[in-house]
Amino acid sequence: MKRAVILISGRGSNMERLIHAERQGELAGTRIVAVLANRHDARGLTRADAFGIPVAVIDHKRYSDRESFDAALAVAIDQHQPDLVLLAGFMRILSEGFARRYAGRLMNIHPSLLPAFPGLHTHRRALEAGVRLHGCTAHFVTPTLDHGPVILQAAVPVLDGDDEDSLAARVLAEEHRIYPLAVRWFAEGRLRVVGERVEVRGRQQEGALHAPRLLA
Ligand code: GRF
């Protein structure tokens, strides 16, 4: 049984999806042992609490610099002795020390097909760039922001008439599919980081790329 801690800053829909996946036995026995947020008003906290999952807030505004916040966050995380730390809409840039401390067991879900569009406002930037395919990436976290070995990606089309909201919704549905799958693969011991890449043992074709609504 793997223990996972989820870090959030806001809505928490990926968190909620992971909790549902856990409850439905889709995470290969992974147990979500805590949800931590850097903001008291993170909406996902109420949801996590309603599921009976321990929650805590480590308010970044109470710390003078990134390193001291990250140190306090690490203390809160380590209390739960996780095998896996899952960033799910956690809107803080993490220090190099933090990324190294959890190397190989720190995952993120990012709303673009990395390495395209790291950072914020990915859907707006995808629309501005005129790309026809957009998507999301589950990846291991390294000290470089939104960079790190890719575990799984899902692609969606950018449709004529899309705005930021419609595109975000299409991508989010895929985030909710691939993040639990990445966690499941981790728990099954199928992921091996080799340099910049992730090798997936026994990868199923369907896990490599989704383009479910791609029109002819
Ligand atoms: C998601 O799009 C995630 O990829 C990004 O922030 C958003 C968080 O949404 N990092 P939610 O809090 O999981 O609903």
List keywords for this structure.
216 residues; alpha/beta; Rossmann fold; seven-stranded mixed sheet; two-stranded antiparallel ribbon; 7 helices; 9 strands; disordered C terminus; binds 5-O-phosphono-beta-D-ribofuranosylamine
Structural account:
A 7-stranded mixed β-sheet has the order 3-2-1-4-5-6-7, with helices on one face. A two-stranded antiparallel ribbon has the order 8-9. The protein is 34% helix and 23% strand. Mean pLDDT is 94; it is low at 211-216. It is globular and about 45 Å long. The chain has 7 helices and 9 strands. It folds into 2 domains: 1-102, 3-Layer(aba) Sandwich (Rossmann fold), CATH 3.40.50; 110-137 and 153-216, 3-Layer(aba) Sandwich (Rossmann fold). The protein has helices spanning 13-23, 44-50, 66-78, 96-101, 122-129, 164-187, 205-208, and strands spanning 3-8, 31-37, 55-57, 84-87, 106-110, 133-140, 150-157, 191-194, 197-200. With 216 residues, the chain is of the alpha/beta class. Bound molecules: 5-O-phosphono-beta-D-ribofuranosylamine. The site of 5-O-phosphono-beta-D-ribofuranosylamine has 13 residues, from helix 1, strand 5 and helix 6.
Helix share bin: 25-40%
CATH class of the largest domain: Alpha Beta
CATH superfamily of the largest domain, by name, is Formyl transferase, N-terminal domain
Overall strand count = 9
The helix/strand series, from N terminus to C terminus, equals EHEHEHEHEHEEHEEH
CATH architecture of the largest domain: 3-Layer(aba) Sandwich
CATH fold type of the largest domain: Rossmann fold
State the assembly state of the protein chains. Answer: single chain
Overall form: globular
What count of structural domains? 2
